[in-house]
């Protein structure tokens, strides 16, 4: 065996969505801030290609690179690599990163509760982990300030006509459509149609509405389309189905923490959810993330919420990705049979 690279990874999933964590073998990228470092990773593409492309990755995979934190209050920092984006924040990925840091002993665990601060590319997130018998059983993340951008905007989608959508930011940017109005019950057999339509809706919203984060000039596109199920009021708070179409055309297996934060911001803007209330989002595989509105703030002068999301993650394996110097595809490859829903 010979290799010119050895990238050490602990693999994990949060409520069904893969969020692998690179714990060694990659030098910290250049940049004064974690955001600048993440822009370098996004421009350079070589690490993204190596871990996300076949034969090591696949469209279902997200990979997080641990880097030394820049902020004095942070215990660890991470750069998120999703199939097409290198985003400011991610719910499922932050839950995987916190679980890997604690369950593998990279950061010390204190039972029954460990508190740590993570530095995501979009900013600091406080994490509380409920821990028992050496396992971080549930991770609570105080996500980035989240806001509703447009309510009841119109988007024209070829073959679908004019859709009424909301747009919002929950650590990443969303077009939100009413799943029931589009004929979806958010059952698993609908995943392919949701992936395909969701990407068309996201692309149409990017062309017709555009998104600009008011305080982060680099984030100027919609990443995702959320098919939002009807909100039910239960004894445990609000509950709703959630299916998120991710570029280039796959559905999040988890209920998507950034979508939950964006949806709570929209419900708050509509007067349908208040601080202290709880919203449980249910994914297409039946897994859940629970969210709460912790308080109010402003982003670029807009009313915003301080969201908390919680969910569970599990380690699934340890990998050492190698590169034989004679491999003709050192950065791998992708083909449209799996990279993009047709
Ligand atoms: O939970 C989330 O926010 C994420 N899941 C995969 C794509 C999103 O970043």
Question: Which terms would index this structure?
Answer:
342 residues, alpha+beta, 19-stranded mixed β-sheet, 19 strands, binds 3-hydroxyproline
What features would you describe in this structure?
18% of the residues lie in helices and 40% in strands. It has helices at residues 34-44, 46-52, 91-103, 191-208, 257-269; strands spanning 6-14, 17-18, 20-24, 63-67, 76-81, 113-120, 123-132, 135-142, 147-157, 161-169, 173-178, 224-228, 232-234, 237-246, 250-251, 278-282, 288-299, 302-311, 313-322. It is globular, with a radius of gyration of 19 Å. By secondary structure, the protein is an alpha+beta fold. The chain contains five helices and 19 strands. 3-hydroxyproline (HY3) binds next to helix 3 and helix 5.
**Bound small-molecule species:** 3-hydroxyproline
Distance between the termini: 39 Å
* Structural class label: alpha+beta
Nearest-angstrom radius of gyration? 19 Å
Mean pLDDT: 98
The secondary-structure element order is EEEHHEEHEEEEEEHEEEEHEEEE
Strand content: 35-45%
Low-confidence stretches: none
- The 3D shape can be described as globular
The percent range for helix content is 10-25%
Main beta-sheet annotation: 19 strands, mixed
Secondary structure: number of strands: 19
* Secondary structure tally, helices: 5
Outline of this structure?
By secondary structure, the chain is an alpha+beta fold.
Write the layout of secondary structure elements.
Layout: E1 6-14, E2 17-18, E3 20-24, H1 34-44, H2 46-52, E4 63-67, E5 76-81, H3 91-103, E6 113-120, E7 123-132, E8 135-142, E9 147-157, E10 161-169, E11 173-178, H4 191-208, E12 224-228, E13 232-234, E14 237-246, E15 250-251, H5 257-269, E16 278-282, E17 288-299, E18 302-311, E19 313-322
The structure holds 3-hydroxyproline (HY3).
